[in-house]
Amino acid sequence: MRSAFLSVGTLLIVVLSSRSAEPERLPPPRPVPASPEVLPRPAPLVEIGPMGTPVLPGYWRRSQYDKWQMLSVDREGFFRPRVLLTPHPYYVYDGKPYPWLSTRPLDVSPSRR
Q1: 55 touches 49 (CB < 8 A)
Q2: Backbone phi, then psi, for 72, in 5-degree steps?
Q3: Is residue 73 within 8 Å of 81, Cβ to Cβ?
Q4: Global pTM?
Q5: Predicted pLDDT of residue 7
Q6: Are 95 and 82 in contact (CB under 8 A)?
Q7: Segment-wise mean pLDDT, segments of 10 residues, the chain, 113 residues
Q8: Hey, CA dihedral for 3, 7, 10, 12, is it positive or negative?
Q9: Which of 28, 36, 39, 97 has most Cβ atoms within 10 angstroms of its Cβ?
């Protein structure tokens, strides 16, 4: 019971000491800027196709199987990064040169295309 009186008394002291005689003053309101001039809405751009019909906007949907275009099967049946056999062979996915054609020719399987 004594601790309840102490806690209530402490609470009253804190509340009464936190109140000040003068209320908090707010900053003055900011001036409202002048409204800018309203420009006319831009005219829509319509591209005309070869037959005189409008071309509708669109996008090319990427196939989920495109990731396999960068890989090919090696002599052991595992997928490896595809190498193009040109006079200077290179990896398809980043264009870096493939330096091991002369030392490891079986790692690259020639395609029939």
Answers
A1: yes
A2: -145, 165
A3: no
A4: 0.41
A5: 77
A6: no
A7: 71 66 82 80 81 79 88 86 87 90 73 54
A8: negative
A9: 97
What's residue 97's pLDDT? 92
**Rounded distance between C-alpha atoms, residue 30 and residue 25, angstroms:** 15
Residues in the chain: 113
What is the pLDDT at residue 96? 93
Structure tokens at 19: 């109140």
- Residue keyed to tokens 């669109």: 58
Look up residue 1 and give its two tokens.
């019971």
Cα 76–80–85 angle (5° rounding)? 100
Distance (Å, whole) CA 80 – CA 82: 6
| Token pair belonging to 89 | 């062979």
Going from N- to C-terminal start, the domains of the chain cover 66-107
Q: Check if the beta carbon of residue 83 is closer than 8 Å to that of residue 95.
A: no
Q: Rounded to an integer, what distance in angstroms lies between the CA atom of residue 73 and that of residue 105? A: 14
Which amino acid, 84?
L
